[in-house]
Structure formats: C-alpha cells, structure tokens
Amino acid sequence: MSQKIFNTRTRKKEPFKSVRDKAVGIYACGITAYDVCHVGHARAAIVFDVVFRHFRARGYDVTYVKNFTDVDDKIIERANAEGVSIRDIAERYIRLHDEDMAALNVLAPTLTPRATEHIGDMIELIQALEKKGVAYCVDGDVFFSVRDFPAYGGLSGRNLDEMMAGARVDVNDKKKNPLDFVLWKKSKDGEPAWDSPWGAGRPGWHIECSAMSRRYLGDTFDIHGGGEDLVFPHHENEIAQSQAVTGQPPANYWMHNGFVKINAEKMSKSLGNIFPVAQILKLYHPEVLRLFMLQSHYRSPVDYSEDSLAEARQALIRGYSALGLLKETAAKFADDGKGKTPADDAGHLEKISALRARFDAALDDDFNTALALGCVFETARLINAVITTEKKMPHALKGKVLASAGQAFEHFRDVLGVFVCDPDVFFQADRAVEVRKRGLHADVIEDLIDKRRAAREDKDWSRADEIRAELAAMGVVLKDSAAGTVWSVE
What CATH code would you report for 4-280? Predict the structure, then answer.
C-alpha cells in the first residue's frame, strides 16, 4: 500500500509522492522559547516524531527540520522582567524543551535551526519580496501586501474580502491593508536589533519559517506540519511569503494535528488549564502520555483528563505484562532453528505476519496510530495466549511464534516509540511514580510484605490475609510466585 496523507490545502487524502526519490523533507514549526512545554506541544512533537519514524522505517532518507523561535515579543518581555538577555531566556527553555522531548522518547530532528542564526536569510527573502512588489516599508517596518498575492487564503479556505469585512487585527496606521502582516519590525529602545536595509530591527514571526525551510529543504519540499492553530495566519502567511518569491508552493503536503482539550474544555492560560509536560511526568510514566496521544488519530481532537491518562496507563501495563511474560519464557522456548513448524500450527505465524502488515498499512493510511495500536495489542494478546493457554503446542513451534512476535514488537516500538523499556524497568519506574503520586511509602509497603511473608511461613493465614487486604486498600497488588512476592500499584 502506498503512503497517503490528508492534505490540509486540498482537504482530502492524497497519495504521497516525494520531491526526490526515496527521500523526504519535513518541516515542523517548533516552540517559541519563552516558557516550558505543555501538553499541546507534546502532542505536536509526538505526531511528527511518528511521521519521521515511519518514513525511516519505510526506507526513506528523511530530513526533518524543526525550528526554535528565539527572538519574539514574549521572549523580550520575559528577559526584561528577569533582567537577563533574550539568549539566556531562549537557552533555558530550549534546554527544558529538549529534556521533555527526551523523556517522551521524541527523536531529535535532523536539524533544529534557530531564528537568530538566520537573520541574513530572512533579510534576503524580504528584499526579494520587495523586488516582486509584494512588500513595502513604512518608517522602518516592512509589511507583506496581502492584496498583491491573489492566492492568499488558499490553505485556510478563507475569502480575502470576507476576512477584510470581519478583520480582527491589531490597529496599525502604517499598514495599507489591515490584513497585511509584518516581515521586519523596527526595534524599540532596549530591544535586540540587527542591521538591515530598513534600519535596526528584527524579523517578524512568519518570515522565520519561510527562510529556514528554504535554506534546508529548498524552494519546494514534501511536508510542512504543525498544530491546527497554525493554519491561519502563520502557515497561510508562510505560503504567501515563499510562493510570492519562488512561484512555487513551499510544501506539497500540509499536515496539522488536532487540538488538545482539557476535560472537554479548550486549553488556555485564562482558564488556568495549561499542563506543563514536566508536571505531568511527575505523576505518570512518560510512555503513558505518549500512548495517550497515539490512541487517537492525529487530526482528531484529544481530551486530556486524569481518567484518560489512567486508561492509557492500564493499556500500557497490559502490553508490558505480555512483554514481561515473553521475557520470562524466552529461554524456555528458545528456537534453535532445527525444529520444523507443524502444519497444524493454527496459523500463529501467519497471524503475526498479518498483524505487522496491518500495522504498516494503518500508518501508510494517513498515519493512523489508533489502528496501528490495535495491531500492537492483538500481538500482545497472542503472546499471552501462546504462553498460557496453548499447552499442547510443541516447544519448537512456541519458540518460533514467540520469536516472531518479539520481532514484530521491535518494529512496533521503533515506529511508535512506545514499549521501549525492559518490562522490569518499566514496572519499577511506574511503581515509583504511583507511590509518589499517592503519598505512599515504599519502605512501609515492603515492611508489610515482609510481615505477610513471616505470617505465611508461620501458617498464620488469617494474619497474612489481613495484610494483603491492608495493602489492597492502599492500591497495592501482590503477585506471589516461586521466586517470591512482587508488588505493583493499580
């Protein structure tokens, strides 16, 4: 099955054809580095991380560019409030961003350019726009003339006359048209500034991405991505800037992930429902947040809530339990390659192969991670069934089936970025998070388990049951085996 992508520009799913054979150029808008990353940033990062991973798994040479805006009104405002430089602010929040992304297992993009590193590229692009007659300067500020770009509104589906009639833009007497947007800003006293043909100033926000995407991916590349909130005006303005100069669309496919809602409400600072990634990761294992994001199609809105994260955690536990069982039995059913596969194997190997094919097909079909995860959990259920219920299956066949399932899971984790931990390490980390979140104390739990063990050795079953019930009331679940007792928090 060939790759298909829903293109925001055409509003339909289209077969993917890359600009260069077996190579893909992707540009995704990154953060403005003035504050910590929140759950909305996490969704966009995870979505395009999977796009990056899937194309690589399909054998493409992928160049993935994700920028940092490191000069902006909000950065300047924060720097002034703290009495430090904009570089200090940007460095701090880029570092925290990178820490959050690493925790969420988001791969580092191929390139992460910063706006301040490309001021020269932006100046050259603005000069080219002036020569084309679509940009004009007024008292040190340079604006893009929207009326002089007839295709404006094509991405968002907006009519220019209708936008004019209902324009809600900043009042600026310098503009010829209220929809015109700034390319270069004249710097005020005390603000960072760069020399330019129009005087000391700094770039507008929209010009950054046009300049950096052209620098690293060319005049026309494959995929431009970002959150749904960037369709208008940011990406609309990017298209206008780039296409007005080159005569070509900057990207062939425009991908946008849906919004994150908080308990069914729009996320906004005014409502006080912005959840920083670092805060979430104090309460949940990072893979819980990642799995939660992947359970919905990237174009759909997701509703972030404690219940939805708890459900994602339970799904993760089910998957890791199967992988833990696979790890425990790997040696017992090791496939030495000598045994023949019986003809009456109930199609286990074929089913695993089909699940892997369905997984790839789901991602080929506009990166449908929700369907792909269904294949992951079907494989987990098959692992459980083969180990626990297929008593009569020959060891040689079990070894082949489990080895095949393990290989399928390696592929799943490489593409989706979940189930990447050793199961024991995951359960230890998850348990530590849950103990801290619920105000429990591991040493108290361990002490109760020791007392229960002593009661069992003394055949004081009543006391042992009382302790188990006491632990259960705390949310602690015990699992007894010949190797001893292990515990978890549910």
Answer: 3.40.50.620
CATH topology of domain 316-422: Four Helix Bundle (Hemerythrin (Met), subunit A) (1.20.120)
How far, rounded to the nearest angstrom, does the alpha carbon of residue 460 sit from its chain's CA centroid?
Answer: 52
Tell me the β-bridge partners of 260. Answer: 302
Q: Write out the chain's pLDDT in tens, 490 residues.
A: 699 999 999 999 999 999 999 999 999 999 999 999 999 999 999 999 999 999 999 999 999 999 999 999 999 999 999 999 999 999 999 999 999 999 999 999 999 999 999 999 999 999 999 999 999 999 999 999 999 999 999 999 988 877 765 555 555 678 999 899 999 999 998 899 999 999 999 999 999 999 999 999 999 999 999 999 999 999 999 999 999 999 999 999 999 999 999 988 888 777 778 899 999 999 999 999 999 999 999 999 999 999 999 999 999 999 999 999 999 887 777 655 555 555 545 688 999 999 999 999 999 999 999 999 999 999 999 999 999 877 777 878 888 899 999 999 999 999 999 999 999 999 999 998 988 888 888 888 888 888 898 888 888 898 988 889 988 888 888 888 776 788 888 7
- Map tokens 């007894």 to a residue: 480
In this chain, the answer to whether the domains covering 4-280 and 316-422 adopt an identical fold is no
Length of the chain: 490
Domains of the chain: which residue ranges?
A: 4-280, 316-422, 438-489
